[in-house]
Write a structure and sequence with these properties.
Blueprint: E1 9-13, H1 19-31, E2 34-38, H2 41-51, E3 55-59, H3 68-77, E4 85-90, H4 101-106, E5 110-113, H5 118-151, E6 155-160, E7 165-168, H6 170-176, H7 198-208, E8 214-221, E9 227-238, E10 244-253, H8 259-265, H9 272-286, H10 291-296, H11 299-316, H12 322-335, H13 339-352, H14 369-379, H15 416-421, H16 432-438, H17 443-454, H18 457-461, H19 465-477, H20 488-502, H21 505-510, H22 513-525, H23 535-540, H24 544-548, H25 554-568, H26 581-596, H27 603-623, H28 630-638, H29 641-656, H30 664-688, H31 704-727, H32 730-748
Parallel strand pairs: 1-2, 1-3, 3-4, 4-5
Antiparallel strand pairs: 6-7, 6-10, 8-9, 9-10
Helix pairs in contact: 1-5, 12-13, 14-31, 17-19, 17-20, 20-22, 20-29, 22-26, 22-29, 25-26, 26-29, 27-28, 27-29, 27-31, 31-32
Length: about 750
């Protein structure tokens, strides 16, 4: 809901335009507020009654020239001043600070000690806008909402978390036969009910206790004892701390003689009501249209019947997806099942109707805010909307660097000092930070040249080494060295991890050369032009990228798209220019899929699909080693296009977040860098008034050990356990175990830092 117009209205009341008055006027211009200035009390009152200003600033320093208290009381006496913020400008004296009580009694919201500095005035206005003004505007909006509730024809009831009725609109009181205010303060159990039996209550509670809304039909008793059939939607309201604070019930009476039709017209209920109405709806879908009867019916009835006819056609289509067939089988089984089985199948249908079948639902843990913030921040899909004036465009520009390509150094001409730092690049404990220092924060081009040469990338792409060098240069130039974490060093590290995984025997037997090339190129571009802020930040800030990609996988889409844009914009760096069209299309598809797989909102879906489609069948086949075709069967299963895709996704995901599986010193350094990047984001969110995506990353209070423990617990352990089961990575798992114990040790000592204090 939009709280107010685009520009706040400010009224300055000063008897003379001195430096203080000019300071506030200039500050209004800087803040983009509409500003009016008056000198006389009567003119000020008339101006306010005409424009209804959000903020009024009155000069309180010269009582003989302007009685500020009287003017403030006069303004407050008007009906339209309830949500207006009034500020008194007072003298700054060395005496004891005067009591604030006289100002409050006069109607002032706050006082401002004179300071004519434009920045001081500007800061005061901004504090007012995001403090008192916004609070008043929200109260004004709440009043509008309550008026809407009072006039609503639907019965609405609000209860506390303890099921005490706190609000019931007139429609609810009329429906239930109660007098105005008679229900307020009563416990919900005191209101007479009829069909709300224990099994139905259990079904409803199983939904709302976990924060999900429930809707369905049941029969209740009015105050006079009459039964009434209702369609009810119960919505839990989550408050501070993630706890349920209220329940909102929206009730619609199901009138009419044909009860089945009226129930079918309601939004299809969940839980127990599904089984109560499913047969009726199915019977209606089976009926064909009677043209003669339609002619005699009203327009609404015709539309209603046509809707059910469309549903019947959809259900008779022969192109059902497998999940649709499963749901239809369960629906058919419900018709002849006893009540407990039907209820259980209803819960199964509830799960199957969701789209994120592999994404777990996390319960809120009050005792682990680090896990809550981290999981919530990284798993958020970016659709966190702001209202009205909170929608602020980000000032951080995301743009590509189209620098002129300079001939980069050839592989054989790499300086010995840099070449020496890359001698162990084939090993897991390769020191990427030494290479970063030796190359002055340009490690990607050098490491890329060596790794790509080892894997024969130029031969596969049919491009020259100079083209590959130019491509690596343009890609690295579009990584931002000012990012603490998401810079070209991180990209080089992910490229190294990808190459390491590709060298494992199981991977070499499973993936094709095109898969290897796709993995290496995807690792190189997977974070290009990363702004050092998360997807949620960009969506909340209304950035151009978020708008371009509709708030969906914003950064990942941008990395993939920009990687290809930079590649094909100049022949000198177009590594794909000599490829056959079909080969290029296949390679491009693999690269884009892998880059998009690094988006964290799909993390659990990718991991669970890998476990269920690769790990478990592989384990089953390996247990049965009696047949001669054992190895061939395993190879056939792993090399299906679907499974190769799942393996590539897991490969780049593990490479992307392999920091906790590095040696301890490397793990600590990466933890420091990602924490600093999150600290900077939190600072900017608070500075711009944006929602703080991960409040735990406050540089003053954050416990880095706790954040690392939560990240390992929720995201790393299961993923690397499954990856280790497939690839066999004992060294990585040992590092992971050591690092987890290290962070646990710091946390048990109640330390929030990266390292223990020196002895």
């Amino acid at each position: 809901m939009r709280f107010h117009q685009d520009q706040l209205q400010v009224l300055l009341v000063f008897t003379k335009e001195d430096s203080q008055c000019n300071g506030f006027y200039r500050a209004c211009e800087k803040a983009g507020f509409m500003c009016s200035v008056t000198k006389e009390p009567q003119a000020a009152l008339a101006c306010f009654l005409d424009k209804h200003h959000d903020i009024i600033i009155i000069d309180h320093r010269h009582p003989r020239q302007l009685d500020a208290d009287v003017l403030c009381r006069t303004i407050r006496a008007s009906n339209i001043s309830e949500n207006t913020v009034i500020v008194a400008v007072v003298c700054r004296t060395e005496k004891e600070e005067p009591s604030v009580l006289p100002f409050v009694n006069a109607g002032f919201t706050r006082r401002y000690f004179e300071n004519s500095s434009i920045m001081a005035c500007y800061n005061e206005l901004i504090q007012l806008e995001y403090g008192e003004v916004r609070s008043q505007l929200k109260l004004r909006a709440c009043n509008s909402i309550f008026i809407a509730l009072e006039k609503s024809q639907e019965a609405i009831e609000i209860t506390s978390e303890d099921h005490i009725i706190q609000y019931a609109n007139p429609a609810f009181e009329t429906t239930m036969g109660y007098q105005a205010g008679e229900l307020i303060g009563k416990e919900l159990a005191e209101v007479p009910i009829n069909e709300k039996k224990a099994d139905l209550l259990d079904t409803i509670n199983s939904y709302i206790r976990i924060g999900k809304e429930w809707q369905g039909n049941y029969c209740t008793k009015k105050k006079n004892g009459d039964n009434i059939q209702q369609h009810v939607k119960i919505i839990p309201v989550i408050g501070q701390g993630g706890k349920i604070r209220h329940y909102v019930s929206i009730i619609r009476v199901c009138n009419g003689s044909n009860k089945a039709e009226k129930i079918a017209e309601c939004v299809q209920p969940e839980g127990l009501s599904d089984m109560q109405t499913s047969n009726l709806i199915k019977d209606k879908r089976k009926d064909s249209l009677d043209v003669k009867s339609l002619v005699s019916r009203s327009g609404n009835e015709v539309t209603h019947q046509r809707r059910h006819s469309s549903l019947a056609r959809i259900h008779s289509m022969t192109i059902d997806a497998p999940i649709t067939k499963v749901i239809n089988i369960i629906n058919a089984a419900q018709e002849s099942s006893p009540m407990p089985v039907t209820e259980a199948l209803d819960r199964v249908l509830e799960i199957l109707r969701t789209t994120e079948l592999y994404s777990p639902q996390f319960g809120v843990k009050d005792d682990d805010p680090h896990a809550n913030d981290l999981v919530g921040g990284l798993m958020c899909d970016g659709l966190r909307r702001l209202s009205g004036n909170e929608y602020i465009l980000s000032s951080k520009n995301l743009h590509q660097v189209s620098s002129r390509i300079i001939n980069p150094i050839a592989l054989q001409d790499i300086p010995p000092r840099i070449a020496k730092t890359m001698e162990k690049e084939e090993f897991w404990d390769f020191n990427i930070f030494e290479l970063e220092a030796a190359t002055h924060k340009r490690p990607l081009i050098y490491l890329g040249l060596k790794i790509f040469s080892r894997f024969g990338i130029c031969e596969f792409l049919n491009c020259s080494e100079s083209t590959l060098r130019s491509w690596l240069q343009i890609i690295e130039s579009n990584y931002h060295s000012y990012n603490p974490y998401h810079n070209s060093t991180h990209a080089a590290d992910v490229l190294h991890a990808t190459a390491y995984f590709l060298s494992k025997e199981r991977i070499k037997q499973t993936l094709d050369p095109v898969d290897e090339v796709a993995a290496l190129l995807a690792a190189t571009i997977h974070d290009v032009d990363h702004p050092g802020r998360t997807n949620s930040f960009l969506c909340n800030a209304g950035s151009k990228l978020a708008i371009l990609y509709n708030d969906v996988a914003v950064l990942e889409n941008h990395h993939a798209a920009l990687g290809f844009q930079l590649t094909i914009q100049d022949d000198k760096c177009n590594i794909f220019k000599n490829m056959e069209k079909n080969d290029y299309r296949m390679l491009r598809q693999g690269i884009v899929d892998m880059v998009l797989a690094t988006e964290m909102t799909k993390h659990f879906e990718h991991v669970n699909k890998f476990v269920n489609s690769v790990n478990k069948p592989l384990e089953s086949l390996e247990e049965n080693k009696e047949t001669n075709k054992h190895a061939e069967t395993i190879n056939t299963m792993l090399r299906t296009p679907e499974n190769r895709t799942l393996i590539k996704r897991m490969l780049i995901k593990c490479a992307d977040v392999s920091n906790p599986c590095r040696s301890l010193e490397f793990c600590i350094e990466w933890a420091a860098r990602i924490s600093e990047e999150y600290f900077c984001q939190t600072d900017e969110e608070r500075q711009k008034g944006l929602p703080v995506v991960m409040p735990i990353f406050d540089r003053q209070t954050c416990s880095i050990p706790k954040s690392q423990i939560s990240f390992i617990d929720y995201f790393i352990t299961d993923m690397f356990d499954s990856w280790d089961a497939f690839v066999d990575l004992p060294d990585l798992m040992q590092h992971l175990d050591n690092n987890f114990k290290y962070w646990k040790g710091l946390d048990e000592m109640q330390l929030r830092s990266l390292r223990p204090p020196p002895q």
